[in-house]
Design a protein that fits this description.
Layout: H1 3-27, H2 38-69, H3 74-79, H4 93-98
Length: 100
Amino acid sequence: MRKSTLLIVSYIIVFPFAYLLPAIAELAGYTSFPAWSLFARSVAAFVGAGVLTVVLTPLNKRLLEWRKARGRDIEAEERHESAHGMISLNPSEESNDRRP
């Protein structure tokens, strides 16, 4: 999966837990758990998504290697994408600059 997709998936996983954390704590019997504002929950979800992305990066690398061994090279496909996400038959200028 692409890095941007991994970050979005991580945020989608973490946000419900960060948003519902006070309710989960109340159900578990912790009545003195502080009630967070929506801003604090969003910041906690953003930080948690970053941490989850770092944790899932090795798994993502293994997934990319597995897909490459089966004929689907995501990194090669990204070289043919424009800045807007459109795929062309020719590599983009930015990827030509990065090649050795």
